[in-house]
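**Fold in tokens:**
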Amino acid sequence: MFHAPSGWDVERVLGQGSCFEVALVACGETRAVAKRVRPALANDAVGRTTIEREAWALSSFAGAAIPLLVDYGEDAAGTFVIETIAKGAPLSETRIEAALRPRVARALVGVARTLHGEAGAEDAPEGFVIADVAPSNVFVAEDGGVSLIDFSASGTENGAPFSPIGRGTLPFVAPELCRAETAPSRATDRYALAVLVAQLLLDDPLTRARGDAAQLLGIGEHGHDASIVLDSSLPAAVRETLAAFLSFDPTKRPTTLALLAKVLDDWALTS
């Protein structure tokens, strides 16, 4: 049973993720999303940091397409976060029409660029890392607008240590993270984003492995199958750029999202 923070009433329990239990709550005519750490993690140091990361991330950006922090506190039931409701539905549960996919991809890259401090965010935390770029964390509105939710794994490069559960959601994970050779970074964010954008545009996964263990091993050893992108009917510039971001060698990947944003913008102008 979800315990609503004082002054709020539970309208509907939305379920549990890997870190949080989530409910739709109301205070008068104001509706919001409330999150608490799952009971199994509530007395665990790692579990407590996840909700701290969520509150920190939501309070760190002005104007970004992420929920706004409404309240953050602690009561008899533990620590809670209350945040605004993201528009739309999770990408993981939404069938995007082919004609709308490029627009959604552009919007998704735009949000990531804002969070990475490449464009649009005033006073963004330096070196911010999303650390979990996955379809379940991407909300898509009817007009193709995109927002990101769930920053329980987020952090900063060269900042506080990342959560031990902050590898990300398979198969949207860079090979070097699968091999546990590195901490999450903007570079691994960019790789995961390229996988997600490619899968969105092609409506086809970039790995045939099924199950976490098989994906962890396969991606760690071989990366994702960029030939699926290169052999597709996407515009040449989009194919080549996505393939570059999917390079197995991290040193050969683009170091910002600017090029991916440009080719998606150019595609929109010519389509």
Q: What stands out?
A: The CA atoms of residues 201 and 234 lie 8 Å apart. The chain has a mean pLDDT of 91. DSSP finds eight helices and ten strands in the chain. The chain has two domains: 9-83, 89-270.
